[in-house]
Amino acid sequence: MDPIKLYVAALPVFVGGIILEALYYRFVLAKPYGWLITASNLLVAFGRLASEALSKGLVLAVYVWAYQRRAFEIPMDRWESWVALAVAVDFAYYLLHRCSHEIRWMWALHSVHHSARQITLSVAYRLGWTGLVSGPWLFLIPICWIGFDPGAVALMYAANLLYQFWLHTEAVPKLGLLEWFLNTPSHHRVHHAIEPAYLDRNYGGILILWDRLFGSFAGEKDGAPRTYGLVRQIDTLNPVKIAFSEWIVMLGDLRRARSLREAAGYLFGPPGWRPDGTGSTTAAIRKAAGAEYRARRRPFGAPVDGAAAKRP
Q1: Residue 69 and residue 76: Cα distance in Å, rounded?
Q2: Up-side HSE of residue 284: CA atoms within 13 Å toward CB?
Q3: CA–CA separation, 36 vs 237, rounded Å?
Q4: pLDDT tens across 29-45, in order?
């Protein structure tokens, strides 16, 4: 099945899920559901589908080229091959997702998804339109070269994204033992939060094991506040502005570059990078938060009275 046809086939499930979530907001949480935001998310999603339809021929041609030079013959009529493919695609997704947070050129695409300030199911497909340029599809080329059929690779990647639909909600609590190995709504709420302890964590697609293995995991703290969106928030419902906002800011920064090194830093350094070291990168934000916390702690042995007793 073609990936785009798979998305269309799943559309009734998406619509039904959004309606149920809206009812949950209305009758359980007793707070308004953001229908205008949802409509904006869906318009962004339609733009994403259009951009993928225009570029899928070129991307598939590259995958076929890699497959024709494959290292192994992997039969796709065995269930073991599909399991291996699912694991390989999920690992590739972890890598491309992590790079999408750590390389600004890729972040310009992925920031579209993170610009949502409310986490609802419709955010799952609030995805950027410049995938062909940003290059996340490049991470699937090695899987085709290993010997997996390109059509199967594209289908499995689409299935991985479909799984992530249900992760974008506040209606699902923690899920016990499943939290240890699967990506869940709890883990993904952490991923979308911009508090320093949560920023740039939990990159997994289906499995959370990669994050636990490579040190990028953070668990959701019960009762702790969560703020969604970007470190530098944008406030617009215009799908075109949502899709190109970070590209415009990045190119503006590039114009100010005074050397090739600075230009490379603005394009391929971490989001927030500045040549003088004053930028709001994730590392800088965490360092500042850690320094503030240490400054507010009472030194060991200090008397618990006066100002010292008022610390958090």
Answers
A1: 17
A2: 12
A3: 8
A4: 888 898 999 999 999 99
